[in-house]
User: Which sequence fits this backbone?
């Protein structure tokens, strides 16, 4: 969409990148230094087997709790993005309901060890086999593949921050009441993303590569919702009584 | 939408922690 976006000075873009990056680091849940301290320790075989032998509903509950924890950090991130809190409350909810899991999936690559194809989960690094009890191996494989592909882009923290903000401010979400306002914010964020990519001397296709991730993210989030409703059809009582209320509100 | 997302709405209202 080559339409003329709002003219924004380089200084303004620098400032925007800095504020979004600061908000990201303040709300990223895990600082890379903390992860280094865990020395990237992965689960022992016995620990893997104990996850695998958990009843399906217990593993689902554990993952729902972890996702819900992460969502709350993404909400704090959104609240710090310039202009987000000036949107109407309906649109704040629409953008977070649709975008929080996408940001979590992008943030996941900060916690991902691509040599061992494992993600930081519940205190150590877990391979896809840890999640076998969930009964949705194909979705887990796709999530791990996505994390691997994000890792291979080797995005810096400020690039991750601005890309996360760009994802959250998606003007094409349905049910938005002030679509134009969101569009303007997203265009400015896209300029900031182009700016930080150029500043970090990324090759030309970098922005397009990032934008191509959006469809993969949307598909993963749709599959998560479908997998959850299939699980709930079998275990309605477990979801009603043991799943975090915020998780049910967003994804139920 | 707000009444269907009371918790999210509350999180948005809380002062930035």
Assistant:
């Amino acid at each position: 969409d080559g339409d003329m976006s709002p003219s924004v000075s380089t200084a303004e873009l620098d400032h925007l990148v800095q504020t979004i990056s600061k908000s990201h680091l303040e709300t990223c849940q895990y600082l890379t230094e903390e992860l280094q301290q865990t020395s990237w320790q992965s689960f022992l075989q016995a620990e893997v087997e104990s996850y695998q032998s958990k009843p399906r509903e217990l593993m689902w509950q554990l993952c729902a709790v972890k996702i819900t924890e992460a969502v709350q950090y993404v909400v704090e991130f959104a609240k710090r993005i310039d202009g987000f809190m000036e949107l109407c409350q309906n649109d704040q909810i629409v953008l977070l309901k649709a975008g929080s899991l996408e940001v979590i999936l992008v943030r996941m690559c900060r916690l991902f060890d691509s040599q061992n194809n494992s993600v930081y989960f519940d205190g150590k690094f877990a391979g896809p086999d840890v999640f076998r009890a969930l009964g949705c191996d194909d979705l887990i494989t796709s999530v791990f593949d996505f994390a691997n592909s994000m890792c291979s882009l080797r995005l810096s923290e400020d690039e991750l921050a601005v890309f996360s903000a760009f994802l959250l401010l998606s003007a094409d979400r349905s049910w938005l009441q002030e679509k134009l306002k969101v569009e303007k914010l997203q265009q400015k964020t896209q300029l900031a993303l182009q700016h930080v990519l150029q500043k970090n001397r990324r090759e030309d296709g970098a922005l397009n590569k990032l934008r191509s991730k959006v469809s993969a993210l949307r598909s993963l989030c749709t599959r998560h919702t479908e997998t959850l409703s299939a699980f709930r059809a079998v275990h309605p009582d477990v979801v009603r009584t043991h799943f975090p209320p915020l998780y049910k509100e967003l994804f139920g | 939408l707000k009444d269907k997302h009371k918790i999210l709405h509350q999180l948005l209202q809380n002062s930035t922690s």
Q: What stands out?
A: The first strand of chain A starts at residue 112 and ends at 113. The mean pLDDT of chain A is 95. Residues 206-234 of chain A form the longest helix (29 residues).
